[in-house]
From TrEMBL:
Residues 1-32, 210-231 are annotated as: Disordered. It comes from the Bacteria. Residues 237-365 form the ABC-three component systems C-terminal domain. Pfam families: CTD6 (PF20282). InterPro entries: ABC-3C_CTD6. This is ABC-three component systems C-terminal domain-containing protein.
Length: 370
C-alpha cells in the first residue's frame, strides 16, 4: 500500500538517516517569572500609599541636609504627604513639602489649586510655616497648562488669586475672613516655591538610594575597591584581633603576642595579616550594602553565614587554630546564591564575616577546657 505522505520511502527500501536541524535560538529568552517591567511600569500599579513610600525613599538621596524625612500622608495630612525637615524645629522651621498624586493622567491646574489652598490655610491656622519648596509629584507629571504656570511664578500667583475670587471655586466653601487672609498671604508669598518633579528625574535620583535594587529588581551597582587595613588596629576590631592572639598563644604559649607585634611574627604574621584583610573586605561589603541595597541585606547574609558555620564551630576540635581553619573553610563552601549581594561578594568576604561574628563573640575560636 502506498503511503499518503508525499515523498514516502518506497516499500522495501532501507531507511534514510538524516541529521535533525537544530532549533532556532529565540530572539528573546523567556523568563519563568513573566516579562520584566521597567520601573516606570511598576510605578503605574502602585497604590497611593506605596507612591508616598517611593517619594520618601527618593527624598533621602536629594543631598539636602534634612534632619528627618517623614511620610505624613493620610486624610488629615494638610497637604504634606512627605516632609523634609531641615532643623529640629520641624514644622516650625524651614522644611520642604512633597505632595504625591498617583493619578492616571497628568495633573491639571484644577488638581493643583485645592492643594495650594490647603497649604495657605494650614499656614494661617498655625499648623506649619510656609515650606521652602512645595513639589507636586505624579507618575504622569504635570500637564502643559500646569507646567507653564509652575514655570512662571508671577503668573501662577495671579491665576491662584483669580481662582480664589471665583464664586464657584473651592475657595467659596471657606469662611470669607479666612479667604481674605489667604489672599493677603498669597500676595506676599514667593510662588517659586511651587514646583513639580519629573518621573525620569526622580528615578535617576532614586537609583542612588539603597532602596532601588529591592524595589525594582535592578542589578546591584558595581562594587568599588577598598583600602588595605591600617597598621594600627582600630577600636572597631579589637575583639576579633584578641581572639586571633588567643589562637596563636595557644599554639605557642611561651611567646608573648600583642596587637603591636603579631603582624611581624615569623610563624603567624602572614596568617594574621590575611585575617585582617578578610575582615576589612567584609567591612567594605557592609558599607557598600548600606549605601546600595535595602536595609538588612548584609545582616541577612551575615545570619546565613553564621547558620552555616556554627555547627562546625561547636564541634570538638584539637585547637583554636583547627576550629578557626575549619570554620573559614566551611564558609567558602556555603550555598549563598539566594542573596542579592552574592554577585559582588568574594571568598574573602565570607571569611571576613566570620571575623565579624567573632568580633561580636558569636563565634569563639579558643574554648575553655573543662
Amino acid at each position: 500500500m502506498m503511503s499518503d505522505f508525499a515523498g514516502a520511502r518506497p516499500e522495501g527500501a532501507p531507511p534514510e538517516l538524516t541529521d535533525l536541524q537544530a532549533p532556532e535560538v529565540p530572539a528573546v529568552t523567556p523568563s519563568l517569572r513573566g516579562p520584566s517591567m521597567t520601573p516606570r511600569q511598576y510605578i503605574f500599579f502602585y497604590s497611593p500609599d506605596e507612591w508616598e513610600h517611593f517619594i520618601r525613599e527618593w527624598a533621602t538621596a536629594l543631598g539636602t541636609d534634612y534632619v528627618q524625612i517623614k511620610r505624613l500622608g493620610g486624610s488629615n495630612d494638610r497637604g504634606a504627604d512627605v516632609a523634609g525637615f531641615k532643623t529640629d524645629m520641624q514644622f516650625e522651621g524651614p522644611w520642604d513639602c512633597y505632595q504625591g498624586k498617583h493619578y492616571s493622567e497628568a495633573l491639571k491646574p484644577s488638581d493643583a489649586f485645592p492643594e495650594m489652598l490647603k497649604v495657605f490655610t494650614s499656614v494661617i491656622d498655625g499648623h506649619y510655616v510656609l515650606p521652602d519648596c512645595y513639589a507636586f509629584f505624579a507618575p504622569k507629571g504635570c500637564g502643559p497648562t500646569l507646567n507653564r504656570l509652575l514655570s512662571r511664578p508671577t503668573e501662577l500667583r495671579n491665576w491662584f488669586l483669580e481662582q480664589l475670587d471665583k464664586g464657584d471655586s473651592l475657595a467659596s466653601e471657606i469662611p470669607e475672613d479666612l479667604r481674605d487672609n489667604v489672599a493677603r498671604l498669597a500676595k506676599t508669598a514667593d510662588f517659586a516655591l511651587f514646583r513639580s518633579v519629573e518621573l525620569e528625574d526622580a528615578l535617576e535620583t532614586h537609583r542612588g538610594t539603597p532602596y532601588h535594587v529591592g524595589r525594582f529588581g535592578s542589578p546591584v551597582p558595581p562594587r568599588p575597591g577598598h583600602d588595605s587595613p591600617p597598621d594600627e588596629v582600630g577600636a572597631h576590631e579589637t575583639r576579633y584581633v584578641a581572639q586571633l592572639i588567643e589562637v596563636y598563644a595557644e599554639k605557642e604559649p611561651a611567646e608573648s603576642f600583642t596587637a603591636e607585634n603579631v603582624s611581624s611574627h615569623g610563624k603567624f604574621g602572614g596568617h594574621y595579616r590575611r585575617q585582617r584583610e578578610s575582615f576589612y573586605s567584609a567591612e567594605a561589603l557592609r558599607l557598600y550594602a548600606r549605601d546600595s541595597v535595602p536595609p538588612g541585606t548584609f545582616e541577612a547574609l551575615q545570619t546565613d553565614v553564621y547558620s552555616g558555620v556554627i555547627e562546625v564551630a561547636e564541634t570538638s576540635h584539637s585547637s583554636g587554630m583547627d576550629r578557626l581553619t575549619s570554620v573559614l573553610t566551611a564558609s567558602g563552601q556555603l550555598d549563598l546564591s539566594a542573596h542579592e549581594l552574592i554577585s559582588v561578594s568574594r571568598i574573602e568576604d565570607r571569611k571576613g564575616i566570620c571575623h565579624h561574628l567573632a568580633n561580636e563573640d558569636r563565634l569563639t575560636w579558643v574554648k575553655e577546657r573543662s
